[in-house]
Amino acid sequence: MASLTQLQLALHSRTLDRAALLLRASVSVKHPIQGSLAFSNERQYRTMPTHGIGKYKHLLPKEAPKKKKERQQMKQIKTATDAEYGTLNVKVSGYDMIIVEHYSQYIHNLCNRLGVKVAESYALPTKSTEVMVMPEQGTKMYVDAILKTHERIVQFSQLNVTLCPIFMEVMLKNQPEGVQLSVKPHTEADYQARFKARPELEGLMAQIT
User: Fold this and answer.
1) Which of 27, 41, 136, 174 has the most other CB atoms within 10 Å of its CB?
2) Which of 127, 133, 92 is nearest to 110 (CA)?
3) C-alpha atoms less than 13 angstroms from C-alpha of 102 in its C-beta half-sphere
4) How far apart are the C-alpha atoms of 155 and 141, rounded to whole Å?
């Protein structure tokens, strides 16, 4: 009797083991991620090789190295002939920046319509003027207002001699109030006036040389 009960217990334990294995297999097939997480806390996919999946930088074209900006140099000044003027500067100045900017754009568009070649159109550094006032009682002056003068340059060349009077008349008729207009030949001093003076840097350069 003892051997029979032992045999029955052994068969019963084997059937339980097989049932447990079948249950584990069914869980892993239905929910493979949950099954793997149920039996192991480690994430298996982190240890798997990716073989470079998701990398794209090697597919992009190589960027060319950035070139250093060259120092701006003065353009050659064209000389006047019997039929055409040389390089001329139309200077527009005033206290209202918006009016000065719009009038300089109008002159630029007028040159394009009349076939006058515009070489450059740029702004000069803003100039500030302090208005000092002396009170009736006292001798110490104080700053009452600061006036800022805005200047624009429209530089063109190859202006026909016969077209110049018409061009000047149209500009003067459309000149806004409070805006000053002047036309003069371009010189090297006008080119240097484009850049803001830096006395500290110039003093250091003078010490080095």
Assistant:
1) 27
2) 92
3) 9
4) 41
